[in-house]
């Protein structure tokens, strides 16, 4: 968990990185992978190190973030498959929460969804990257925005990044905001891809 004095910088990073991913994620896929790798690495490091005394040292978090960023950037060639696998798992989790009313879907369904997502992502790379970065970025930007304005229910420490798509009670509006912002981001990315390149 992040100590309180790191919450605002983390929220600003989530907001900026989320908007970048949402609107230009396909074009800057390596940068987006680096940002998400950094955030994930820093959060995992903060969780592992724990809050002994005054919380995890910022140097440990920066080192963990750097490792996470490097790993995802170097994994660029398998990054598309990873994005597809994550998207498949997210869809199954979301469906389980909405229709089966359980937070933890059947593990076999999750495994099948990740395999199907990875295979589909390799076949439809550009479109999968656009959809995944648009909607992933939209969710990240929403979490960052409500954390920046001081909503305690949406603080980064509550697991929004490591455990996405879990909306706290009273914040169901986030689903609508996510779908609208993600749809706009996907449309912007698709329209920019359809413009002929200048020579």
Distance between the termini: 50 Å
Structural class: mainly alpha
Mean pLDDT: 77
Number of strands: 0
Quaternary organization: single chain
Q: pLDDT below 50 for ≥5 consecutive residues: which ranges?
A: none
* Number of helical stretches of at least 4 residues: 7
Helix content: over 70%
Give the H and E element order.
Answer: HHHHHHH
Task: Assess the beta-strand content as a share of residues.
Answer: under 5%
Number of domains: 1
- Radius of gyration (CA) equals 17 Å
Characterize the largest beta sheet: strand count, sense, and whether it forms a barrel: none
Task: Give an overview of the whole structure.
There is one protein chain. Helix content is about 70%, strand content about 0%. The chain has one domain. Helix 1 packs antiparallel against helix 2, helix 4 crosses helix 6 and helix 5 crosses helix 6. With about 200 residues, the protein is mainly alpha-helical. The chain is built from seven helices and no strands. The chain starts with 6 loop residues before the first helix and ends in a 5-residue tail after the last helix.
Question: What keyword list fits this structure?
Answer:
0% strand; mainly alpha
Summarize the structure in short.
The chain has 199 residues and is an all-alpha fold.
Q: How would the blueprint of this fold be written?
A:
Layout: H1 7-24, H2 29-49, H3 58-74, H4 76-100, H5 107-123, H6 125-148, H7 173-194
């Amino acid at each position: 968990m992040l100590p309180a004095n790191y919450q605002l910088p983390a929220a600003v990073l989530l907001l900026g990185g989320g908007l970048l991913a949402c609107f230009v994620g396909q074009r800057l896929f390596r940068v987006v992978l680096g940002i998400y790798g950094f955030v994930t690495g820093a959060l995992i490091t903060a969780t592992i190190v724990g809050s002994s005394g005054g919380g995890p040292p910022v140097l440990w978090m920066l080192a963990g973030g750097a490792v996470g960023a490097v790993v995802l950037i170097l994994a660029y060639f398998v990054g598309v498959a990873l994005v597809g696998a994550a998207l498949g798992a997210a869809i199954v989790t979301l469906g389980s929460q909405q229709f089966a009313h359980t937070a933890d879907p059947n593990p076999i369904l999750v495994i099948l969804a990740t395999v199907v997502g990875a295979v589909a992502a390799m076949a439809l790379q550009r479109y999968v990257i656009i959809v995944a970065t648009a909607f992933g970025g939209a969710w990240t930007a929403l979490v960052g925005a409500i954390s920046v304005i001081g909503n305690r229910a949406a603080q980064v420490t509550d697991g929004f990044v490591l455990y996405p798509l879990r909306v706290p009670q009273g914040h169901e509006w986030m689903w609508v905001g996510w779908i609208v912002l993600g749809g706009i981001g996907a449309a912007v990315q698709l329209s920019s891809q359809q413009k002929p390149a200048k020579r």
